[in-house]
Amino acid sequence: MAENETLECITEHERILQEIESTDTACVGPTLRSIYDDQPNAHKRFMEKLDARIRNHDREIEKMCNFHHQGFVDAITELLKVRADAEKLMGQVTDTNRRLQEAGREVTAQTEEVIRCRIQQRNMATTVEKLQLCIPGTTQGHNFHIICTICLCRYYAALKTMEQLEKVYIPRVSQYRFCQIMAENLPRLREEIKEISMSDLKDFLESIRKHSDKVGETAMRQAQQHRTFNSAVAKQACMGHYTKPVYSLNGRTHTHNGLMMDDDTGDEEEGDEEVLTAQDLVDFSPVYRCLHIYTVLGDRETFENYYRKQRKKQARLVLQPQANMHETVEGYRRYFNQIVGFFVVEDHILHATQGLVTRAFTDELWNMALSKIIAVLRTHSSYCDDPDLVLELKNLIVIFADTLQGYGFPVNRLFDLLFEVRDQYNETLLKKWALVFREIFELDNYSPIPVETEEEYKLVVSRFPFHDAEIEKQDFPKKLPMSQSVPQIYTQVKEFIYASLKFSESLHRSSTEIDDMLRKSTNLLLTRTLSSCLQNLIKKPHIGLTELVQIIINTTHLEQACRYLEEFITNITNVLPETVHTTRLYGLSTFKDARHAAEGEIYTKLNQKIDEFIQLADYEWGMAESDGRASGYLMDLINFLRSTFQVFTHLPGKVAQTACMSACKHLSTSLMQMLLDTELKQISMGAIQQFNLDVIQCELFASSEPVPGFQGDTLQLAFIDLRQLLDLFMVWDWSTYLADYGQPTSKYLRVNPATALALLEKMKDTSKKNNIFSQFRKNDRDKQKLIETVVKQLRSLVNGMSS
């Protein structure tokens, strides 16, 4: 029972504490009284409970204070720091207040001045009121108003005021002298107004002449933005997203909007959609004002004639180019800007005024300007040798033409001029690529391209369309037959096509025409530039036989790649080669001609090399007997020919066979000429035997088939003339030769009597002092007689042939 009472007491005390904590202080009294009304010792237990609760709250307060103590300290520290800034701010405020007071004094002084002016204004108003009480005062007030309006450039208002004075006020007070004087001054005032307005017009014309390039620059920039926009719209149209734009100038449907003539417009973003009209950007008020004044004064025709005359003079100045205009694109741009600015202003005047200028007048100006522009561009573009500059000129001409076409001026002649500029552009491209080709040929090593890995092979094939099944089967490392110049040339031809295509853009031409332009320019590159570079390369003295062989191989591969160039152009223009009138590439003939020239140069250089070896020949023409061995120079020559013809096996077609046959024929001819040389006076039989050994080596070389493909002894026939001649002298078979001469079956059919006679005369006794047969006995003397007899018979044969 006691435990229950204690628990209830504790619960009651807890409730009372919570009520004290949560209840207003004024209501605590009844709660505390209830404690004393309970059990006798209840208040002591409540006090203990209260002390415990207080100690608990003290601990919480202490914890909280400890927790926030550092923040409090930091706040105090910051406050101390702010005190210095507050003092500084206080000083600034004080200084500002002082300066404000000083400024206020000036404002106060100005206010006082304003008050004085207001007083004066009020006095003037009072005076005007008083003056209006009388007619002379009113008339004088109107006169004052005229002067004021003239000074404020309100010329039309001044004219209206003078008209009112002349027709309304002056007749009422015409009896006064000052009114008569005023009436006499009115014509003078009208002339002054005309002069002032004309002066403003002259200032306007001078200003517009100086700033016409800025006008044109902005108009051309806007035309270029419109072109870019149209390109974007065309792309969107292909994707099914097209919104047709609407452009207008001064209420007219127009391709290009207004002008952007303010000096600040150059800083505007190109994406700004705001389009300003001419009235927004050019102050035409002097023109309108002067036109209106002259119309009111009945002298409009004078004004129109003056304006048109001045604009014609300005047009001639605008059309006069600078001497160095062709040196930079900026020179052309300034020239076009001035012209565009001039005609944009005229177009606006045409539509904004009634009859000041007419369509016939602007057309006359434009036709005169167009002829001058075309002549200037023809002259200056001919000086340009930079294709990039010519291309920029073309772009400027296109934008120039599009801009003026948007304002209603016919520009077909400008687009016709672009075809002439295109030819100039192609010429500069050809000159540029001629240098590129020369550099490629100079840096080429004229040896097959080595490829070590699959990546290197793919890199070469990606630059040049090369396909060879046998080479693809070979293991790495391997060599491709052409040299490094072939993929470079092929790549540069494609780059030329791209460069030529750049000029065809924006010319409003069909794909077929662009395709025709590309093919014609590419044909010029191949047949003229590249062909010339190849011909010059082939003729260079440092190009040897190995290099010539490689050039022939290179031209063969380039010739095979021509069909890929055709496909390349077709992919660009989307015009099929089967289309009617499609121009074909002439690369095949170009590379064939170069290959034929290289082949001819091979034959020439090979013969020159043979001549160099033959010049080393040192025969002892008076030797008694041969040593039984062929001459050293000839063996070296044969070894050279053998190694050279091994290289020739890589040549296509029958080039190697032709070169081998040519070399053997030249060798045979050179040896024959050596025997018959007029400087050679005497030849011994021993020398003939030695010469025969050398010819035998030549025949052995020919029979060894140095180049495959010859049938039978075809190559040996190159030495048949020498062989029959030497056999005739070695066997001394003159009876057979003379008996069978002229017969198709003759053993010595290839021996000409004149040749045999020339050689025989070198062997007979021509002088007793130097007679190679002087040591002969009777048989030798008989042989000498036989020689003389044969000589006589040969001479008769020669004479018979000549007769």
Name some characteristics of this structure.
exocytosis; two-stranded antiparallel ribbon; Exocyst complex component; 28 helices; 803 residues; mainly alpha
Structure description:
The model is unreliable at 238-273 and 765-776 (pLDDT under 50). Helix 18 (511-539) runs parallel beside helix 21. This protein has 28 helices and 4 strands. It is flat, with a radius of gyration of 56 Å. By secondary structure, the protein is mostly helical. 72% of the residues lie in helices and 1% in strands. Strands 1-2 form a two-stranded antiparallel sheet. The chain has a two-stranded antiparallel sheet with strand order 3-4.
Topology:
Elements: H1 2-22, H2 28-36, H3 42-131, H4 135-151, H5 155-172, H6 177-210, H7 212-238, E1 248-249, E2 252-253, H8 278-281, H9 285-296, H10 300-318, H11 329-352, H12 359-381, H13 387-406, H14 412-443, E3 449-451, H15 454-463, H16 469-473, E4 478-480, H17 485-504, H18 511-539, H19 545-560, H20 562-573, H21 587-614, H22 632-648, H23 655-675, H24 685-703, H25 720-731, H26 734-740, H27 753-761, H28 778-802
Helix pairs in contact: 1-2, 1-3, 4-5, 5-6, 6-9, 7-11, 7-13, 9-10, 11-12, 11-13, 12-14, 13-14, 14-17, 14-18, 17-18, 17-19, 18-20, 18-21, 19-21, 21-23, 22-24, 24-25, 27-28
